[in-house]
Amino acid sequence: MEEGSQPAADARLAGLIDWIGATGRGVRQWRLASADASFRRYIRVWTDDGVFVAMDAPPEQEDCRPFLAVAALMEEAGVPHPRIHEAAPERGYMLLDDLGERTFLDGLSPEEADGLMTGAIDSLVRWQRASRPGVLPPYDAALLRRELRLFPDWYAERHLGRPLSPAQWERWVAVEERLIEAALAQAPVYVHRDFILRNLMRDGGHAAVIDFQDAVYGPVAYDILCLVRDAFVDWPPEREERWFRQYWEAARSAGVPVPAAFETFRCDIDWIGVQRHLKVVGIFARLCYRDGKSHYLDQVPRFLRYLRRETADRAGLSDVSALLEEVIR
Prior knowledge:
Layout: E1 3-4, H1 11-22, E2 27-35, E3 41-47, E4 50-56, H2 65-77, E5 84-88, E6 93-97, H3 113-129, H4 141-159, H5 166-185, E7 188-191, E8 200-203, E9 206-209, E10 216-219, H6 222-228, H7 237-254, H8 262-289, H9 300-312, H10 318-328
Antiparallel strand pairs: 1-2, 2-3, 3-4, 4-6, 5-6, 7-10, 8-9
């Protein structure tokens, strides 16, 4: 892990350290805290005024303004999150609270999972019950379709070397339309879009939410699906079902617009799960071949297992299952 008491050689990091100093907080030491699947990176900085986490998001590749807007929404909703102390969005720099180094995923044990999930569900329900239309970008048909198209373009064609045949493309387009229709039929709420254990920090007994800049207004089942069917850890089906029901009961009690019948909601979870997991498989292939981050492909088998489970027993998803088996054989 890179660290030092002087600015690093690259110009952006040097500019970030100078910017922090210009706020009146002399930097004594810095250390790379993390980098994610985007072009953002986070640097932990020790200053005369305390310890912070600085975000470096190159403006030509990342826009900081959505992060600022969503942080304000989380503050209104009472959702724990890193407060923003300083921001220069035109330069792609922000100075945030340091929430520590332990995410919900770090050191996760089966014994503590129920407690962590309860904290995560509480933060999620707070976030969703504050939802208002016209505030966040809509999770509309165009965005859903762009995400779905990542699977045939990046995973099937680029990674597997199996471009869809004309007949398969016709079937794929029909699959897209059904998945989009099902997503748009769900009640809309604020959606984090990557509400996974790695994006939740251990903040006392609460779940502090990070990496929320891609939030949209869309399907109510999306974020609980992300939480329970995580990108980096598997759970036994009986635990999944318990957490899905726990969320549904908490959401109903809080006035979040989930369906009145739990089985209807479970069906919604599987339908939006297919959309989410096809997208993620495509994104992981793109991260490998476009961005040189090949380790994400190690997680693809988990998502293919999710897809097989979600399409196996649901009416209307048998065509999806058959097409997937042809492509990923």
